Amino acid sequence: MKESILLLDGLALVYRAFFAVRGLTGPAGEPTNAVFGFVRMVRQLRAWWKPDRTVAAFDGGSPERRLALCPAYKAQRPPMPDDLRSQLPLVNEYLALAGIPSVRIDRQEADDVLATLATRAAADGADVRIATGDKDLMQLVDARIRLVAPAKTEQELDEAGVLAKTGVRPDQIVDWLALIGDNADNIPGVPGIGPKTAAKLLQRFGTLEDCLARAGEIESDHLRGMVRDGAATARTNVGLVELDRAVPGVPEWSGIESPEEDAAGLDAFFVRHGLKKLRRETAAAEEPSLFAAPPPPPPPPPPGPRQMSLF
User: Fold this and answer.
1) Domains plus CATH for the chain?
2) Predicted TM-score of the model (pTM)
């Protein structure tokens, strides 16, 4: 039987939880909103997908290779809020008590650690799901690796979903991102080329390098000029957005222990930090969704087809 693995984009989930739940504090007035939301999301994901193993990855800083290509890489990001930073030790404590191992490598980003773990697990025949909202990770999607959005637990993004969402295949995502850039990471795209135009170029030429080599075939003078003028930027961006699937220091799966959940320790943790609702849910074995929408008013109309949107 194939092993099922759930990988958590740790800091991304913590940030999402922090901004989704506001004003929650513990007995001493300490903020606990990020911890509360993070626990809820992790529980919901595990309850729905029932993985055999769950592992979280956390950022350890930007790697030198990306900073060498772009010194301004991620430089525009504001510092982490103090109320969030103070909760990171609590998140780590929860993971340890819940029996969820975490991996953090100095000067390595969580995306690369996730790419390394996912690639190794898939090579061993496991089914892998990565809980994230990061579009960079779409490049990993294949027959064994899929993405799930923390806010829409029951939906997963497969190869067809990536194509439907972006207009390109997962193996073209790096070239697509190289053309359009990524504001979240302070990566400038090729001026004038947006997601739809980049997708059309890759649909026609297949790869970024073929697009650049055959730019003379582009009928529009304006677009042809943008592609040629942006060639150096696009090639630099490939090195920024392409994930490292062999990060040094990431342990092999055989070296990642999955301890049993410490039920008594978790109960004491919830009591100590005033997380009464999580404690009640544990006792009742309920995993309600933090992000669940209210039920529609009766009688509901017949449901129509919906487009899946994960990010």
Assistant:
1) 4-159+243-255 (3.40.50.1010), 170-241 (1.10.150.20)
2) 0.89
